[in-house]
């Protein structure tokens, strides 16, 4: 549904997006992650025809954005929630968009309901909206044409925890209904729950990508038991490498699947207090580690 092939953007001497390739399958949510300045927005702008690539290409439903017959009906885009006309009411913003892409007024009310903007809020001018309300309006605009694909740049920005929870539900339902979602974030935990796959970029380059489970399991397994010293010895005996022995009861990090560790513990009657995929550091640490080395902002430090 979304195919990105060797996409590159250079601004003078700066390579903002450096030869990235990935795919987003129908029915899935892909989190596009990277620190500030990593090149996420530039990549999304190229995907949606707003910035011409220096080389490479991106297709949506088999065509470039510019080749799409009625892009507003096929691809829902939210790149900059503050770009909406400040002097119009939320409802007016959506009505104007509805006319331009050819959808009914009734659909405007439907999407307002979907994003949880009340009658009163829809009648307020956008300049008086909070950032969270602007995000909801931006998502409403993206959903307006009943698209099959959603491309959202930092949609969780400005949403409170409840709003983030709501957005996850909305995107999950959209994907479960066969839709394709690409959403960017500079915060792993915002997308970690909802995303099926993750694409992590730093300084324009892909630094890691794969299914969430795959990326999580790269960190090994964390295990905590009532007797970690004995468990470590049992694991070593079974040729399962223990990479860390935590101090103060923080457990072990083991280079094996949780199932393997659990079985050894069960066979030897060691009581487990915790058993999970990922090292003690978790995906967040891995993300920070992967991107710290490639953060442009880090250059100044
Ligand atoms: N029009 C432009 N001209 C020159 N440089 C640009 C332009 N647009 C983006 N850049 C640079 O390209 C790099 C990537 O920027 P981009 O906005 O794509 O990053 P991002 O990952 O979306 O970060 P953020 O979350 O901070 O927006 C940055 O160094 C930015 O300064």
UniProtKB/TrEMBL annotation:
It comes from the Bacteria. InterPro entries: AAA+_ATPase, ABC_transporter-like_ATP-bd, ABC_transporter-like_CS, P-loop_NTPase. PROSITE patterns: ABC_TRANSPORTER_1 (PS00211), ABC_TRANSPORTER_2 (PS50893). Pfam families: ABC_tran. Residues 2-228 form the ABC transporter domain. GO terms for molecular function: ATP binding; ATP hydrolysis activity. Transmembrane segments: none annotated. Keywords: ATP-binding, Nucleotide-binding, Transport. Belongs to the ABC transporter superfamily. PANTHER family: ABC TRANSPORTER, ATP-BINDING PROTEIN. This is ABC transporter ATP-binding protein. It comes from Nocardioides glacieisoli. The lineage of its organism: Bacteria, Bacillati, Actinomycetota, Actinomycetes, Propionibacteriales.
């Amino acid at each position: 549904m979304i195919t990105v092939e060797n996409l590159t953007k250079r601004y003078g001497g700066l390579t903002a997006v450096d030869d990235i390739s990935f795919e987003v399958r129908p029915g899935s949510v892909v989190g596009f992650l990277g620190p500030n300045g990593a090149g996420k927005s530039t990549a999304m702008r190229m995907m949606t025809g707003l910035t011409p690539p220096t080389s490479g290409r991106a297709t949506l439903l088999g065509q470039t954005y510019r080749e799409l017959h009625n892009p507003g009906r096929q691809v829902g885009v939210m790149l900059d929630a503050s770009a909406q006309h400040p002097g119009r009411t939320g409802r007016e913003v959506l009505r104007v968009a509805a006319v331009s892409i050819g959808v009914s007024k009734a659909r405007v009310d439907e999407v307002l309901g979907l994003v949880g903007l009340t009658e009163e809020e829809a009648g307020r001018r956008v300049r008086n909206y909070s950032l969270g309300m602007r995000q909801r309006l931006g998502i409403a605009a993206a959903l307006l044409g009943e698209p099959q694909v959603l491309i959202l740049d930092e949609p969780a920005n400005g949403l409170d925890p409840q709003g983030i929870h709501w957005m996850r539900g909305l995107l999950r339902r959209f994907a479960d209904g066969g839709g394709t979602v690409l959403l960017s974030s500079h915060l792993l935990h915002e997308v970690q729950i909802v995303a099926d796959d993750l694409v992590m970029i730093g300084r324009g380059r892909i630094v890691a990508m794969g299914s969430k489970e795959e990326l999580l399991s790269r960190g090994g397994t964390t295990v905590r038991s009532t007797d970690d010293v004995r468990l470590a010895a049992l694991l070593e005996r079974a040729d399962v490498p223990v990479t860390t022995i935590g101090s103060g009861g923080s457990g072990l990090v083991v280079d094996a699947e949780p199932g393997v560790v659990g079985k050894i513990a069960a066979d030897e009657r060691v009581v487990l207090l915790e058993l999970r995929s990922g090292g003690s550091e978790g995906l967040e640490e891995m993300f920070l580690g992967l991107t710290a080395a490639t953060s442009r902002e880090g250059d100044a430090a």
